[in-house]
Design the sequence.
C-alpha cells in the first residue's frame, strides 16, 4: 500500500460562495512582465481538467486576453464558456513556482479554478471532515 | 508505536500562513464584505487598500501605494437562495 507524506497543511477558507472551500492564495504572473504579478484566490477543483481564471486577471498581469488560443470549457451541465489559453507563472512562497498554460475566461468568472494541470505538479490530499488539505511540491 | 510515529509526522507538517491575515480580515469583517459585493478588492494585511468595480483601477491604486503584488479578489454577491456550488 503506498504511503503519502505531506509537507504543508492549509485550512479550508470561508468563501462568499457559502461555506468553507479548499482555497489557495497564489501569485499569478505574466512571464514577460513579472513585475505586474498579482495574488489571486484560487479554488482547488479536481473536476477541472485544466485551470481556469477570470479573464480580468489576464489584463491585470499585462496579457492580451483575446490574443490567446481559444478553448471552450464545458461544465457538467453541458453549457460551455470560451476561454483563451496563456502561459503564466504561478507561485506560492511555500510551494514554489509552476509554469502552466491556463485558460482565462472570456466572460466574468466568479471563482478561479486550479485544476488537474496544477494537481499534476504537486501531491494534494484532502481531509474534508477536518476542513484541511495537504500539499507537497513534487520534486 | 506506529500511532506515535504518525502523530509525530503530522506535527512536523508546516501550517501555511501565507495571506492568513487577509483571510482573517475577510472572516472578521463580514458586514464590510457584504457591502463590497460585486467589487474588486485589494487587502494587504489588515488594511482594506482599495475597492471598486474596475479591477484595473483598483490594482493600479494599490501599486501606487507601494504594494508590489496586490492581493486582489472579486467579492461574490450572496446567493438569493440556498445554493450548492460546483466549479463552473
Sequence:
Amino acid at each position: 500500500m503506498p504511503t503519502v507524506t505531506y509537507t504543508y497543511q492549509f485550512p479550508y477558507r470561508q468563501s462568499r460562495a457559502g461555506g468553507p472551500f479548499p482555497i489557495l492564495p497564489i501569485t499569478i504572473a505574466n512571464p514577460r512582465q513579472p513585475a505586474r504579478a498579482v495574488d489571486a484566490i484560487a479554488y482547488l477543483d479536481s473536476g477541472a481538467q485544466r485551470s481556469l481564471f477570470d479573464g480580468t486577471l489576464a489584463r491585470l498581469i499585462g496579457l492580451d486576453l483575446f490574443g490567446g488560443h481559444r478553448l471552450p470549457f464545458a461544465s457538467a451541465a453541458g453549457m460551455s464558456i470560451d476561454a483563451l489559453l496563456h502561459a503564466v507563472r504561478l507561485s506560492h512562497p511555500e510551494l514554489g513556482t509552476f509554469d502552466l498554460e491556463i485558460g482565462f475566461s472570456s466572460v466574468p468568472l466568479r471563482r478561479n479554478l486550479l485544476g488537474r494541470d496544477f494537481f499534476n505538479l504537486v501531491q494534494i490530499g484532502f481531509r474534508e471532515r477536518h476542513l484541511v488539505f495537504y500539499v507537497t511540491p513534487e520534486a | 508505536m506506529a500511532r506515535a510515529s504518525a502523530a509525530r509526522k503530522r506535527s512536523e507538517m508546516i501550517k501555511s500562513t501565507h495571506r492568513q491575515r487577509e483571510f482573517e480580515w475577510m472572516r472578521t469583517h463580514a458586514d464590510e464584505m457584504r457591502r463590497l459585493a460585486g467589487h474588486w478588492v485589494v487587502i494587504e494585511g489588515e488594511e482594506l487598500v482599495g475597492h471598486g468595480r474596475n479591477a484595473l483601477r483598483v490594482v493600479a491604486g494599490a501599486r501606487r501605494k507601494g504594494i508590489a503584488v496586490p492581493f486582489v479578489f472579486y467579492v461574490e454577491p450572496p446567493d438569493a437562495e440556498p445554493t450548492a456550488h460546483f466549479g463552473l
